[in-house]
Amino acid sequence: MPRTVVTRSEQETFGLARQLARGLKPGAFVLLRGDLGAGKTVFVRGLAAGLGIDPDSVTSPTFVLIQQYNGPTPLIHADLYRLEGGAAVDDLGLEELGSGGVVAVEWAERLPRAPADSVSVTIEDEGDDRRKITIAEP
Ligand code: ADP
Ligand code: MG
Asked: Is the pLDDT of residue 73 over 70?
């Protein structure tokens, strides 16, 4: 059953993600959906913190689609916002990349197929600093 949490600040979203990350094993996929400014990158920073990675090293890539951050459990961060066309998504090799770490994907709706057993995170802006976050774990 998916669980829904309403956060009231960037810090709360960060903390929620940090806690989620502690239960993730290498190879886990976290698929993030939500509009621009919803808080997907904030969530990925929280994941990084939970994996023992400096959250400030996680940026919103402008041109790079995939970045890897090394740590006790590496984090592979993909942002598919600028990806055009479905074909290229198939060529990303995300499944192979993910074998050694946790893979977080922003704009996961652009993936042609969701990887099996992925954690799905949907963030909706409820006005002001409130975000409705729905987490479905396999
Ligand atoms: P996205 O990656 O989805 O485009 P970002 O994570 O880059 O969005 O930005 C989210 C913005 O919303 C940040 O400026 C953050 O400070 C703000 N914000 C306000 N309230 C929240 C909240 N409850 N959770 C996450 N971010 C929030
Ligand atoms: Mg982002």
From this structure: yes
Mutate which of 4, 6, 10 for ligand 1 pocket (most atoms within 8 A of beta carbon):
10
Q: Where are the beta strands (DSSP E) in the chain?
A: 3-7, 29-33, 66-69, 75-79, 102-106, 119-125, 131-136
Domain boundaries, the chain: 3-136
Return the residue whose CA atom lies nearest to atom 20 of ligand 1: 129
Identify the pLDDT of residue 82: 78
3-136: CATH topology:
Rossmann fold (3.40.50)
Name the residue with the closest Cα to ligand 1, atom 23.
Answer: 9
Q: At 44, is the secondary structure helix, strand, or coil?
A: helix
Mean pLDDT (whole number) for 26-50:
96
Protein residue with its CA nearest to atom 24 in ligand 1: 10
**Against a cut of 0.85, is the pTM above it?**
yes
